[in-house]
Amino acid sequence: MKQGYDGSEEGGGPHRSLTFRRALMLGAAILIVRSIIVLYLEDQEQQRVIVDDIIFPVVNGLAALSLFRAARATRSQDERMYIAWAFFAVAQVLYALGDVLWSILEIGLKETPFPSIADGPYLSYYLLFLIGILLLPAPYQSTFERLKSLLDTGVVTIFAILIFWSFLIAPTVATLEESDPLANAIAVAYPVADLVLAFALIALIFRKIEHIAQRPIMLLAAGAIFLIVADSIFMIEALRGVYVPATLGDSFWLISYILAGLAGVLQVESAGVPVRASADRPSPGFTWPLYLPYVCAIFAYAFLIWSMEHEDVNLYIRQHHLAAGVGMIIMLIVIRQVIAIKENTMLYAAAQHELRQRIASEREKEHLIKELEARTSEMERFIYTVSHDLRSPLITVSGFLGFLRDDIEKGAWDKVRKDLEIIESSITKMDRLLQDTLELSRIGRMMNPPEDVPFYDIVKEALEQTSERIRSRGVSVSVAEDMPVVHVDRMRAVEALVNLIENSAKYMGDQSDPRIEIGCMRDGETVFYVRDNGIGIDPKNHQRIFELFYKVDNRTEGTGAGLAIVKRIIEVHGGRIWIESELGKGCTVFFTLPLSEKT
After folding, report:
1. Cα separation, 500 vs 531, whole angstroms
2. Prior bond of 514 cis (ω within 30°)
3. What is the dihedral of CA 112, 117, 121, 123, to 10 degrees?
4. 118-154 burial by CB neighbour count: b if 16+ within 10 A, else e?
């Protein structure tokens, strides 16, 4: 199957003088011509032998040349693939050398070619082919995958050993003659070599060579299968004494050579074609290697039952040995199933973990989207509020500047003084609005590192900062003693509590006994509260009071940013805030804060 080049560049690569299609046609022609000659010379055994002794070495030599071409074409792409194909080529060369020596002995020297010097190259082929298969680059496998592959290989190998021993090796051993030890060793070596070749095919099946060109390797494997079949037929017929040389049955050897040559031609064609990743290939409908160990186990068990029911048939293997082999197969399959269950359990756990992570990510994404929508809406309200509330003092300043100009021209100095006071008050108000706006914008961006702080200490510090207002309003404050430790930005937490205390003191109204209560409740969740007995808030305004610059009573001092700042501080800590209140019945502000892990 010679593949040549004329050296010209056409279409970005060398022009191939022998394509796979042409090689296939040539191989088929050789097979057909040989079959016609064998049928024509049906009664002339010696002539048939001469024809085979000429055709077989030639075809085998062409196959070896094709495999060397394949190795050379692969060298620039993958060093390990090159070495593997080089072993295939050398193995084929040795088998071709064996054919040449066989032909010389049989035709030229008129000697019996078995046993002979030809057996050395023949037997070397099997070992080198196995090495070539093992050298093929295999994809990465996890520990579980490697264990399962080893166990699958072990099951099929034990089955192959039982079959080869029962039908080839043991019968061959039983027919050995004590007079010629060398002939005996060579006779046993061939079925053992076929067993080695079978092991090479088994190893190939479970290596999962998905990332290299598979069709050339499959042709090599098919050639090896035909070689095993040819050897097995020869040995069985030889043991029965019915073997006739150079018949159509010997075509299996010729087919093996042709397939090896075709594999080399196809590998040369595939060398420049990138192999698609397994993920890009369509998934096979039936992955038969997964079921092969179980099929072998069934046949081995059936073989054991059959041997027990037909004790009169000499299988050259003792039943307890056969039973031990079947037992080993079953044991390996059980171990494989245990490993598969363990792997599936881990994969299921990993899938569940990934699913939980995805669900958490989706929830977090939904939460972030809602938070972004809320922030966007809040920003729109913020911009509207700021522009509206800042515009009000600006309009006042602008209007009174006109009045001031007129009053100065008229010399109405009393009115000038009053205009200046109003302008100054508006500027002061605008400054407070800007400061509160800036304070709100800083929260979350300028947070101090959180620390563990007893909430009682935060209350104590807040009361110290609001002591003047509490004393001036005559407010009595009660603080619960049994309060937990929180994990917060202490400065911001104190700021939030100061705003809540001042807000309660501000809206006490006219009463003789103003009171503020600070504490916490524990009912599945720790909730802090600041309760007063002031004027209360209409339920319809419960949400609006947390808006920037909103004031229940516009006549009170301040900008109305206090509760907006408190809400922002609580939310930055990951907490919640809400109120319960009715007009004339006081107000309670509830909020949560992260607790210390120690708590």
Report:
1. 9
2. no
3. 70
4. bbebbbbbbbbbbbbbebbebeeeeeeeebbbebbbb
Helix (H) or strand (E) holding 579: strand 577-581
Query: In the structure, how many helices (H) and strands (E) does the chain have?
Result: 16, 9
Q: Which of 567, 575, 593 is nearest to 440 (CA)?
A: 567
**Residues sharing a CB contact under 8 Å with residue 270, sequence separation 6 or more, in sequence order:** 213, 215, 216
Residue with tokens 């054991």: 304
What do you get for the CA distance between the two ends of the chain, in Å?
Answer: 83
The encoded tokens of residue 261 equal 């040559």
Tally Cβ neighbours within 10 Å of residue 473: 14
Contacting residues for 595 by C-beta, under 8 A, at least 6 apart: 484, 485, 486, 487, 526
Shortest CA distance to 259 belongs to which of 230, 291, 297?
230
Q: Distance between CA atoms of 21 and 31, rounded to whole angstroms?
A: 15
Tokens of 327: 């037992």
Residue-level pLDDT at 282? 42
Q: What is the distance between the alpha carbons of residues 342 and 338, in angstroms, rounded to a whole number?
A: 6
The amino acid present at 182, given as its one-letter code, is: L
3-state secondary structure of 511: coil
Interhelix angle 292-309/319-410, nearest 10 degrees: 160
Contacts of 433 (CB under 8 A, 6+ apart): 386, 389, 390, 393, 549, 559, 561
Among 143, 76, 202, which Cα is nearest to 346's? 143
Strand ranges inside 357-484, DSSP E? 451-454, 476-479
Instruction: Report the distance separating Cα 578 and Cα 588, nearest Å.
Output: 9
CB 332 within 8 A of CB 158: yes
Could you write out the DSSP letters of every residue in 321-377? HHHHHHHHHHHHHHHHHHHHHHHHHHHHHHHHHHHHHHHHHHHHHHHHHHHHHHHHH
Alpha carbon distance 68, 91 (integer Å): 11
Q: What is the pLDDT of residues 500-540, one digit of tens each?
A: 998 888 888 788 889 999 999 988 789 999 999 888 888 88
pLDDT at 285 over 50: no
Are 534 and 508 contacting, i.e. CB atoms less than 8 angstroms apart?
Answer: yes
Instruction: Identify which of 471, 477, 474, 478 has the alpha carbon closest to the alpha carbon of residue 513.
Output: 474
Question: What six digits make up the tokens of 81?
Answer: 């693939």
pLDDT of residue 289: 80
* Number of other CB atoms surrounding residue 264 within 10 Å: 32
Taken as a whole, the chain contains a residue count of 599
* pLDDT at residue 317 in the model: 80
Query: What stretches of 424-561 adopt beta strand conformation (E)?
Result: 451-454, 476-479, 485-488, 515-522, 526-532
83-113 residues labelled b (16+ CB within 10 A) or e (exposed): bbbbbbbbbbbbbbbbbbbbbbbbeeeeeeb
What's the burial of 20, exposed, middle or buried (CB within 10 Å: 0-12/13-18/19+)? buried
- pLDDT per residue over 86-136, tens digit each? 999 999 999 999 999 999 999 989 888 888 999 999 999 999 999 999 999
